[in-house]
Amino acid sequence: MKIVTVDEMRELERRSAEEGTTVSMLMDNAGLAFAQEVRRWRGDIHGCLILVLIGPGNNGGDGLVAARHLHDWGASVFLYLCTPRPENDPNLRLALERKIPFKSASEDPKLEDLKRVLDSAELVVDAVLGTGRSRPLEGTMKKVLEAVGLAREARSKLTIFALDLPTGLDADTGAVDHACLPSDITVTLAHPKPGLFVSPGAEKVGKLVVADIGIPPHLAQDIRVELMTPEWAARVLPKRPIWSHKGSFGKVLAVVGSINYVGAAYLACEAAARAGAGLVTLAIPRSLHPILAAKLTEVTYLPLPEWEPGVIHPDAIKDLGPCLNEYEVLLVGCGIGQHTATQELLRSLLFPGFPSMPRMVLDADALGILAKSARWWQRFEGEAVLTPHPGEMSRLRNISVREVQQERFRVAKEASSLWKKVVALKGAYTIVASPDGRLLVSPFANPGLASAGTGDVLAGTVVGLMAQGLPSFESAACGVYLHAAAGEKVRERLGDAGMLASDLLEALPLTMKGLKER
Length: 518
Description:
single chain, alpha/beta, Rossmann fold, UDP-N-acetylmuramoyl-L-alanine:D-glutamate ligase
C-alpha cells in the first residue's frame, strides 16, 4: 500500500481525471466510502445524531457527500458550516434538498447552536480541512475545533471521525496546530500520508482506515514508499518445502552477549531460531558458555577467548575469521558491550572485512562502536542491515534525536543512501530504508515494545529470515512486521504494560502461522 505526499496525491488525482475519473467522481466516491466506514463502525445508524463539521474546500465537499449518505441511511445528521461554501456547490444543494438541518458559524457567533448539538451528538465528523491545509488555524475555525475538543473531554463516549486526516495535522510532516482535533478514527482517502506516521501527528490519528476512492492503482506504481500489510508479509515469508532439511534454512553465527548482557544473547539467538533459521551458532565469551548452554538448548556454540571474564578478546578474530564462510548470516552487537577490547575486535571484523564475509545484521553495541569510527561507511563494504533506535541514529548521523524523530522518513532514506546499507529506524511505525530509495513503513505503534530486550528479538528475527535466503531489504522489513505483529498478539493477551521481550518469542511462529493461513 503506497504512502503518498500531498504533491503526489494531487498528481494522482490529476492523472486519474485524465483517465476519466474526475475530481467530482472522486469526491462522490470519497464521501460514500467514508460514510460506509462510519456505518461499519456504528452498525445500525437509525436515529444516531451525527454532527458533520464542513470546511471550505474539497474536504468539506467530501463531508457533504458523506452527510447525504448517512442521512439517507437513517441517521439524524446536522451540518455545521465552519466557513461559507460556494453558492453553486452541488453537494450542499443536494444536502439542503433533503432538508438536512444546518447552521453556519457566521450565524452562530457564540457557538451556542454548535454546543447544543454537541451535548447530544454521538459522533462528530471532522471534514474541515484536508491535505491542502497550509495556514495556522485561527478565528472561528479554531474556536469550533476547540469547542468540539472540550465536548470530547467532557463526554468520553463522543466519537470523532476524521475525514482524510484530523484538521490541523500536516499530511507531509506530522506537525500539528495547537487546535488540531484528535480523532478516534481517521479514514484517510486512497493512500495514507507520511504525517500520519510521524509524531506528534500520529498521536492525533486514532485508528487508521484507508478507503478506496477509485484512483487506478497503476498510477501509483512508481511511488517508492509503502505501508506494510498482512498481504505483503504473507507473500514475503520464506517458503518451507516438505523435503527440506536444516541446511535448507541457513546458518546464523551470532557474536552477541557479554558479562552485563547475557540475556541479549539468549533473546537474539532464540528469535533467530523461532523465525525459522536452520541452525544458530552463538559465539560467546568462554566464561558465559555454561550459563547460556543451560538456557539455549537448540543452539550450537563457539566459545571465544576473553580479555577479562565476560568480554571477548580481540584475538578472537582468529577463531571467527576462518569459520565465516560456513554461515549465511552474521549477527553482531546485541549486548556485546562497548569495552575497548570489543571495539578492537569489531573493527578487525568489519574493516575491511574478510573475502568470504556473509551478510550481516548490526544492532545495539555494534552501532555504538560504528558511531565512534570516523566515516566508517567508507571502510565497511559488506552487505548489512543496521537496526538503530532514534538515539543510535542520532549518534551515527551526528544529529539530534529530535531531528531524527521529526524527519524520520528523510533521515532513514538519507542514512541508507549514504551508508549503502539497509536501515531499520526503530520506534513507533518503524521505517525500513533501502539504498535504492525504497521505504517500507510498519503499521504498528505499540508502547509495550518499549522495554529492554525487544530490540534483540527484532535483530534475531531479521537474521533468521536472512538465513533462509530473503534479500536484506525484505528480511529487515518482514522481520519488523513479524516482530510488531507478535507484539500485538502479546498486547491482546497481557496489555501494553508489563510485556517482556521473551513474551514475543513464542508469538513469532504463531504470527507466521497466522499469515500463512490467511
